[in-house]
Each structure stands twice: as structure tokens, then as C-alpha cells.
Amino acid sequence: MGNNSEENFISVLIDKFERMLEQNDHYFFDVEEFEEIIDHYFEINDLVKALKVIRFGKQQHPSAIVFLLREAQLYATTNKVEKALDILKKVEEIDPNNSEIFMTKGAIYSQLKKYNEAIEEYNKAIEDAEALDEVYSNIAFEYENLGNHEKALEYLKKAIKVNPDNQSVLYELAFCFEITNRTEESIEFFEKYLDINPYSYVAWYNIGIAFNLMDLFEKSIDAFDFVIAIREDFASAYFNKANSLANLKRYDEAIKVYEETFAYEEPDSMTHYYIGECFEKLKQYDKAILNYKKALDLDDKLPDAWIGIGVCNAEQDNHLEAISFIEKGVSLDPLNSEFWYILADFQFELGLIQESISSYKKTCELEPTNPEVWLDYSDVFAESDKYDKAIEIIKIGIEIQPNNISYLYRFAAYLFLQGRKKEAIIVFSDALSQNYARHTEILEYSDQLSNDSCVLELIETYKNS
User: Quick one: CATH architecture of 334-402?
Assistant: First the structure.
């Protein structure tokens, strides 16, 4: 039966059933017709009418177990799980090999977060299940709930072997490969799958995402082109192709591909944001701001767009306006260390010293392992010749990141500039012995030190050591 014919058939059934209710009459429906009507009401979440259909079905076909199963499913949906399990227990006594019983019980146990019990029930359904891929995928989902993605992959592979066209399983496979950091295995799997199923746009899409994760952007673009060739209206393929182009710094091309998504889906705030970001990279700040504002028209709580407008204003020397936009972005995402760092830098540039100190401090609290933030935070104090405080801060950075050689060189610089020459020589010598090549950092930091005879002699001493 074609889709239109089937829809018309169901529509006629619904009209007939509702007319029966209105007239308080009794019409005959066979079991399959009742099932269609029940499914319709489940789909539109009209559970009251679904229950009425079940009761009529039980009256007309008292020996049909399907209505007890549907009743159990309805009670499970409305969180009356004990009632649902009682019904299923009765059904199991009548028909102990009915796989739908085990599927329904599995779903109920999953709902109760009893994932191992759910797996046990689903396993009972394997022998007689009509849709074996559904059973395997349900087992996989329960293993995911248990955090066992390795086992989930095992069952998802079984599911796709049974039904290679199961798209939801293909997506879930990609997710499990990604969350277990098995990107190479993901590519290998989907390449083999595509050898047999070359027109699967979902498989091409998943392999494109995997190539992206491995920074193989040219290959990911090719994969997304295959997706588009197979299914022209698949907006996500355009979006991710554009991401790959942007990662290759091909910003003009990326903008055009991002804009193609609008032909197949409603404009999205993040798409406009990424278009804005591309224009920002091209230093076309007016166009960047325009697209950031379009993003905010769709979602005024998108912090990245507020930050983007702020950065573009700063690039156009509108610093005070820039600060207000950046502060708005920070207020929307106060746990984002990157936003606090941007705000701190701009505050420091504008001479808002106390404000920048607070923002750098917040950045350090949120992301103490950032490889540069302790340099900038301490430098605020060094710029005001408050070397004791600068040293105190950079030492915290060294304690948190003992292998960050930049911090050691900066520590030496502060000691030299404060006149604590003996201590400075010890620290500087340590830094030179650990990583001589990075000695230029101390020279670049301070013109005074780049001409300091002691500093230059130490550099020369360690040059060939």
C-alpha cells in the first residue's frame, strides 16, 4: 500500500472510530484495524482515546493478546509501571514465547533505569523477534546507559548486519566510535560498509564527520559531496562541509556553502554565527557584525555572537562599545574561560586595570591549565612595577604547569627586573638548561633584558652546552 493510500486508509479508520464514539454506537473493527487506530493515538499522544480503543478491542477480540500488550505499553508510558508489569506477567503465562512481551518489559526496565534487567528481557526476545535489528539496537542502547560503549558497539554491529538499511543504527555506531575515541576504526568500518552500500548517504555523512575529527578536511569535503550527490536536501552535509572549508581557511567558499543550508532548512543562529566568523577571519568586519546580529535575531542568548560583535568592534577601534558586547557574552556564559580571557585582554588594553585583574583571575580559576593566562595575569602587575605580586602569580602558574617553560623564563625576567640578580641567574640557568631554544622569550618580553650583559652572557654560556 502506498503512503498516500495508507494515510487515507488510517484517516477513514479514525473517522469511523470517532463517529462511533460520538454516536455512542458499536462498529466492528478487525484486530489490525484496532492496532492502526491505537498507534495513531499513541503518535499524537492522545492516551485517553488510545485506552478507549484498547478497551473496545478487548471487547470485540477477547482472545487477542495484542490489546493486553498495548495496554501495558500505555501504562508504562504514563509511569504506571507496576500495573504494566502485572499485565505483562499475565500475558507471559498465556504466550510465554511472545517476543513483544520481552521487548515491552525491556522498555519498562529501561524506563526504571534497571538497565541490566532490560538487557536480560531483550535477550529473551532475540529468538523469535521479527525485527531482530531492533532488539540488538535496544540492547546496545542499554549498554550505552551503563557506560559500556564497547559492548554497545558489538550489538550495533550485529544490528546493522541484520538490517544494513537501519539509519538510526548507523548514526549510533558513529556516536559510539566517537565517544570511545576510535575514529580510525570508525573510518575503517564505514569504508567497508560503503564498499557494499555505496549509496548510503548516512554512511558517507558519518565518515565525513570522522575525517573531520582527524583533521582530514579534504577527505571530509569529498565525503560530504557524496552525501549531497545522493541526497541534495541534506542540510547537515552542507553545514559540515562548510566547517571543513573554514578549517582549511577557505573562508569565501565556506560562506557560500553555509548559505546553501538555508535552501533546505530554516535559518539557524549557529549557521549565521559561523558565517560571521568567516567574515571576521577575512577582516570584513561589517559583514561579520551583520551575520552575528542575524544570529542574535534568532537566538539573543547566543554568547558567541555577542563576543564576535565585541571583537569586530574592537578591530574597528570601537573599544568602549566592544567591551559592552563582550561583557554581555560573558554574562550569558559565565563559566566560559575563553570569554573571560578576551574580556580581560580588552580591559587591560583600555587601561581598566582593576577590572582586567578580576577577569584574569576568573580565567585562571576556570582554566588554570591554560598555557598563557598566568603570563598575562602576572604581567598586569609587572607593568605597574609590582614585581612581588607578579612573581607570586607566575609561581602559582609554575606549580600548576611545571613543564611550561614559558613560565620559568617569565619568572626569571621578573626577578631580573626587580633587581634580584642572584635568584634570577639560578632560575634563568634552569630554564636555559631545560629548553635553550625558547630563550628568545625573555628577550622579546623586555627590551631592557635584551641588552642586559648578564642575560646575554648566560645565553652564550648555554649555547653549546
Answer: Alpha Horseshoe (1.25)
